[in-house]
Structures are given as C-alpha cells and as structure tokens.
Amino acid sequence: MRPSFYVYEELKVFTGRAHPALAQAICDYLEIPLGEADVFEFSNENIFVRYHENIRARDVFLVQPFTSPVNTSIMELLIMIDAARRASAGRITAVVPYYAYGRSDKKDQPRVPITARLLANLMETAGADRLLTIDLHAGQIQGFFNIPVDELTALGILARYFQEKFGPDSLQEVTVVATDVGDAKRARRMADRLGVPLAIVEKRRLGNQEQVEAVNIIGEVRGRIALIVDDEVLTGGTLAATADIALRHGAREVYACCTHALLAGRAVSVMEESPIKELVVTDTVPLTPEKRVPKVKVLSVAPLLGEAIRRIHTGQSVGALFDEY
Questions:
Q1: Rounded to an integer, what distance in angstroms lies between the CA atom of residue 301 and that of residue 258?
Q2: Taking a C-beta distance cutoff of 8 angstroms, is the pair 210, 239 a contact?
Q3: What pLDDT does residue 9 have?
Q4: Of the candidates 10, 53, 135, 279, which lies 20 to 30 Å from 165 by C-alpha distance?
C-alpha cells in the first residue's frame, strides 16, 4: 500500500459509454484532454476495453455512472478498472456520480440480497483504490467499502439555483418538503442552506411496486411555496404525490429538485401532468432529448466533480467542497 503522502504522476481521466458528455465537461474544467480508450461490445455482448495511452504510475480516474443499461454500465466499469490495474496504474479512482442499486442497502424482506454491498465488493476486487460519488441513496453504503469513499452532494448547486431564482424576498416564503421521514435529513440540510422551515410527508410504498401513497404532511405549507427535495426521481410518482398533498394543505405553488434524474417509463409525462411548476435536476446521469422538456431544468455537476478530482490528485481536502458548493 502506498504511504499517505505518496504523490502520483500525471492525472488521467477516462470514461466508459455511460456518460461521455459529463466526462468531457469534467476534463474541460480541469483543462486536460479526455483520455483515449476503446470501450465497446463484440457481437456476443462481451465488453472490450483498451487504453491507448501509457497509464503506468498515473493517477487514473474512471467516470462511469451506473445508468441505463445499468448492468452493462457496471460491467464496463469493472473491466475498465481491471484493465487499468493490469496496465500498472498508480491509483485507480472509480468516479460513479450515480450509484445504482442504492435502495438495496439492507435486508428489509426475507431472502433478498444487499446488492449495494455486492457492487462495493466487485469494485474492490476489480482493483479500485477509491470511490468518488454524489448523493448516495443511503449513507451506510459508504461503510460497505474497505477503500476510501468521497461522497459529494449536489445540494449546494441546487440551493444556489433556488436562491437566485426566488431572491431574498420570495425565499422567505419557501418551505422545504421531504418526501418521507427517511429523507428528512437530506431535506433538513437543504432547508438549513436556504434558511427556511421544513415539512415532512408521511407516505406508504405499495410493496415492491414503484408506487407510493402520500397520506399526511407534518409542518406548515399553507400559503407558502413548497420545494420538494429528493435524491432521485424514477417514475415521478413520489414527487407528484408529494406535490398533490402539499397543495391540498394549502401550498401556493410547488417546485421540486433532485440530484439523479432517472425519469424512467412515463416519468416525463407524470411530471408534465403534475402541478409541479419546475423540476430541477443535475446531469449525474445523461438526459435524452425527449426528457429535456421545458419543465425540467438541468444543472451540471462537472465543476463539482472536477474540483474533487483535482483535490484528490493534489492531496487537498475534499471536505472543504461542502462549504464551497
């Protein structure tokens, strides 16, 4: 194992096929070229990876969110890690802006897996030296790793957008709304950043179906602007149900924000049909053109990830980013 003060050679950033646009934006921030590599599938669906640059003793960062097709994205990253390790990379950091299977973080039913832990084991076995990610669904996932994990948050980026959008006067009329008790801590951090009160929705998830039922709201939203905060939007059902109950309790208008915009199935239609005035998300996962409807506002996490990569490479504090972003 390298000593803690070891200085690695040249910084190199590579990407799989999951989100090359984000990797390029990160490199633009760092003012370095994106590394050249082949990543493709043969006709038998076997994935092939080859680096076209010397990465011996280099500080290698592999950008690959676990996005659709999720299992292909995961396998691509594992093979990229293995290829980098066998090419004698000095250090390999897996940059996974969106960590899939985050909801499978515990045994909440009989005879089910803890897939989030399985992914951690796979990345370590492949040869990753550390993980850089954004807004894990469950904080305990960090503990599944025996390597360093830097979990960034996009809350600062989202909060700054709404501070500028509402201005100091309208901001005092905002109440941050958590979609459920489990997400109250994340919503509380957003409320603290904005200096506004918090409300919490009580909801029921209907078994393993991707459906929820909002039943009550704790906190005052009457006559106020409700800002719903969640870590990800999948089908849009949770946000739509939360918006409905906020309006039933007297909210004047509803906005929503989340870090990871998966927007699967009918999610875009659900958002357009919902009373939510604007959904603000980040580009941790790529948004296809049909998902970039006027109601959806996309903010970039490339500067956040780029600065974290720069600090990891130079041995500076990553924790300081929580005050800056």
A1: 12
A2: no
A3: 79
A4: 135
DSSP 8-state assignment for residue 286: -
Distance in angstroms (rounded) separating the CA atoms of residues 14 and 152: 20
Q: How far is CA 34 from CA 8, 20, 28, 214, 222, in A?
A: 18, 9, 8, 45, 50
Q: How confident is the model at residue 77 (pLDDT cuts 50, 70, 90)?
A: very high
Pair of tokens at residue 201: 């929705």
CATH entry 3.40.50.2020 includes domain 155-300: yes
Model confidence over 218-256: pLDDT tens digits? 999 999 999 999 999 999 998 999 999 999 999 999 999
Please give the pLDDT value at position 272. Answer: 96
Rounded CA-CA distance 261/129 in Å is 28
For the packed helices 184-194 and 155-171, what is the interaxial angle rounded to 10 degrees?
50
Cα 70 to Cα 85: distance, rounded to the nearest angstrom: 23
Q: Please name the helix (run of DSSP H) or strand (run of DSSP E) that holds residue 159, with its range, or none.
A: helix 155-171
Q: Give the residue extent of every domain in the chain.
A: 11-153+303-324, 155-300
Could you tell me which of 121, 26, 70 has the C-alpha nearest to residue 232?
70
Contact 40, 48 (CB under 8 A): yes
pLDDT band at 214 (very low <50, low <70, confident <90, very high): low
Query: Residues 106, 203, 291, 297: which is the catalytic one?
Result: 203
Three-state SS at 197? coil
Q: How far apart are CA 318 and CA 266, in angstroms?
A: 37
Does CATH number 3.90.1200.10 belong to domain 11-153+303-324?
A: no
**Whether residue 185 lies in the annotated active site:** no
Same fold, 11-153+303-324 and 155-300: yes
Average pLDDT over residues 75-91: 98
Place of tokens 């040869």: 127
Write the pLDDT tens digit of every residue in 38-53: 999 999 999 999 999 9
CB atoms within 10 A of CB 138: 17
Tokens 């980040």 belong to 282
Average pLDDT taken over every residue of the chain:
93
Whole-number Å distance between alpha carbons of 127 and 82 = 6
